[in-house]
Each structure stands twice: as structure tokens, then as C-alpha cells.
């Protein structure tokens, strides 16, 4: 039997597949990075397994997280999303996702994409942590606080240090697979 991080043993196949194939793996595609940021925001206060179960619904509802399309959403589209029972219908989170797509467009006008912007903080390298126990994995660090602050300065919303830390794990800037996990590298 394969050794996994403890959290990947407690949920659905969606959770295990995410752990095995995505979490902690370097992601630099802007659309994928934007999707992960958006999903991490949707997860706030809930559990990741729930978000992953609804992931295809989110992709459909948010035009596959195409930044330009999401940035152009109007009030009618926001209302549609707030009434979509297939996704998490939190108006603040939906508004933040639309706002963040607009912030990505502003970044582009400065000559930098979202992926490039966040990866520059680690010099384009994955931070490989070496935790032996789940309790050792932090929910935020000075590193995530710094990036959250920089994202906020660029107009991003709903990106506190904890959501930002999870986002950094999701796109592989931080690799927090436990030392015994066979999916660490």
C-alpha cells in the first residue's frame, strides 16, 4: 500500500487523486494557477474534499476559469453564480473571484502574469519542507504573509496568509508532503 499524507486518507477519491497528482506539483499555467487560487478561496471555512467534488461544476460555472471571461462578468452573471446550487454560493467568494480575475488583467498590463508574479517570491523554485507529522505543517508562515500582502497590494481579495499558504501548496511553490509520503517528489 502506498504511503500518503494523512489528510489524503480521510476523504473521497477526489481528495486522494488531488493529493497524488496535483498537490505540491509545480504549476505555472496562468489559467490553472487562477483556478487554484479561486478554489482555495471557495474552500475557506469549508473542507477541500467538498470543493474537489464540485470542481467540475465550478469549471462549468466560471467558464473553465478563463481569466478574461471571468473578469468581464457583470451583475447578472454574478447573480446567476450566487443562485447556482452546483457550486458554493457565497457572494463574497464569488465577488472576490471576479475581482481577482480583474486583478490578473491589471498584472498583465504591468507585463507580468499571475503565475510569474507568485513564483518570483521563491525564485521559481519549490520550497521543499520536511515535516514528519501532520501537526508540524503550518497553516501560514511569514512567506505566505508576505505574498498575501503583495497580492492585496495588487488588488486581490480574500487572500489572507492562510488561504495564500494553501494556494502556494496547491501550485507547488510549497511542497508540504510529509517525509514518508511516496508522492513527495
UniProtKB/TrEMBL annotation:
Gene3D superfamilies: Hypothetical protein, domain 2 (1.10.340.30)
Pfam families: Adenine_glyco (PF03352)
Keywords attached to this entry: Metal-binding, Zinc
Residues annotated as binding Zn(2+): 5, 19, 177, 181
Keyword Metal-binding: yes
Domain of life from the UniProt record: Bacteria
Record GO terms (molecular function): DNA-3-methyladenine glycosylase activity; metal ion binding
InterPro entries: Adenine_glyco, DNA-3mA_glycosylase, DNA_glycosylase
One GO term of the biological process aspect: base-excision repair
Protein name per the record: DNA-3-methyladenine glycosylase I
Amino acid at each position: 500500500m502506498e504511503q500518503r499524507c494523512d489528510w489524503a486518507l480521510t476523504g473521497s477519491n477526489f481528495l486522494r487523486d488531488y493529493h497524488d497528482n496535483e498537490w505540491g506539483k509545480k504549476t505555472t499555467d496562468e489559467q490553472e494557477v487562477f483556478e487554484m487560487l479561486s478554489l482555495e478561496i471557495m474552500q475557506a471555512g469549508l473542507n477541500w474534499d467538498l470543493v474537489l467534488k464540485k470542481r467540475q461544476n465550478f469549471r462549468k460555472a466560471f467558464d473553465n476559469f478563463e481569466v478574461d471571461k471571468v473578469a468581464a462578468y457583470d451583475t447578472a452573471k454574478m447573480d446567476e453564480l450566487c443562485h447556482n446550487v452546483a457550486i458554493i454560493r457565497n457572494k463574497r467568494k464569488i465577488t472576490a473571484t471576479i475581482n481577482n480575475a480583474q486583478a490578473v488583467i491589471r498584472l498583465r498590463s504591468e507585463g507580468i502574469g499571475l503565475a510569474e508574479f507568485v513564483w518570483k517570491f521563491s525564485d521559481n523554485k519549490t520550497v521543499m519542507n520536511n515535516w514528519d507529522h501532520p501537526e508540524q505543517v503550518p497553516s501560514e508562515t511569514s512567506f505566505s504573509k508576505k505574498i498575501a500582502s503583495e497580492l492585496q497590494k495588487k488588488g486581490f481579495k480574500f487572500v489572507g496568509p492562510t488561504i495564500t499558504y494553501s494556494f502556494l501548496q496547491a501550485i507547488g511553490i510549497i511542497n508540504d508532503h510529509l517525509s514518508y509520503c511516496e508522492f513527495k517528489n
